[in-house]
Specification:
alpha/beta; Rossmann fold
Amino acid sequence: MLFVICASSGAGKTTIIRELFKRFPAISFSVSATTRNKRPNETDGKDYHFISIEEFNAKKANNEFIETEEVHGNFYGTLKREVEPFLNSKDIMILDVDVKGALNIKDLYKEAVTVFIDVPYEVLVSRLKRRNTETEAEIEKRSSRIKMEAELKHRFDYIVDNSAGIDKAVSETEKIINKYIA
């Protein structure tokens, strides 16, 4: 079973996923590949597979991804080797991808469950500025993408509102997973 969880930058997706792993320790996580620089709190192979643009392009040419996307000038992709073992098993995997990537995965794997973490635009921009991990130019890029992503949320199986607090959003996402594993 594949659970694809996505959101715009600053929506709390990573925090929600970390909490879900505490509640469902048997669930696996698909580590995406990216060409963006590693942030100080990230670990290669755990948060992302940080690779060069050349390596990314070689993997793409070798058809090693199930989806790829350029986001804010960096490339991201979900590696087949991360996902395929879960397609024919009863195990559960969470994928953390961008909005377009989630829709591409749903097109490829109809049985995948897609969850969009929703937060109002103004709140997202404020969170991006507060977390202090992006330059002002990067915040501008991310802000323009937020609007496009919000327009696609109706195509997801579930929309979880994370404007009322992380605990409520985690609980709501937990209920969604329980529908499929109970």
